Amino acid sequence: MPASMETISQGLPLPTPDATGDELFRLGLLYSTGQGGAPLDYVSAHMLFNLAAMRGSVEAKIYRKELSAEMATDEVAEAQRQAREWLAQG
Fold first, then answer.
1. Quick check: 7 pLDDT over 50?
2. Please, which pLDDT band fits residue 90 given cuts at 50, 70 and 90?
3. Cα–Cα distance between 15 and 89 in angstroms, integer?
4. Residue 18 phi/psi, 5° resolution?
5. What integer pLDDT is reported at residue 42 of this predicted model?
6. pLDDT, average across residues 29-52
7. Contacts of 45 (CB under 8 A, 6+ apart)
8. Contacts for 27-30 with beta carbons within 8 Å, 24 or more apart?
9. Which long-range contacts (CB under 8 A, 24 or more apart) does 70-76 make?
10. What digits encode the pLDDT tens for the residues 45-82?
11. Residue 45: CA atoms inside 13 Å, Cβ hemisphere, count?
């Protein structure tokens, strides 16, 4: 697993490549709130919301936009890079 993905793997397991938009959204919620065994991690949450949005979750688009407003530009860029990396692995 690439070092950049360690943040998410330290909390909860990485989603499988066949994860639905709803599953990715729910996992993003855990990271955005620091609940359910996930650390509070906006980069991982944004990555998951981005992936969920790509898989059809309208809610994820809303949460991703709201979360982006709370994040630094470099954090958003890192989340997008991690999403591309996850997609490439699947």
1. no
2. confident
3. 11
4. -95, 10
5. 96
6. 95
7. 28, 29, 31, 32, 63, 67
8. 28/52, 28/60, 28/63, 29/63
9. 70/42, 71/42, 71/43, 71/46, 75/42, 75/43, 75/46, 76/46
10. 999 999 999 999 999 999 999 999 999 999 999 999 99
11. 21
Measured over the CA atoms of residue 51, residue 61, residue 67 and residue 27, the dihedral's sign is negative
**Nearest to residue 2, comparing CAs of 71, 62, 82?**
82
Provide the greatest CA pair distance for the chain.
30
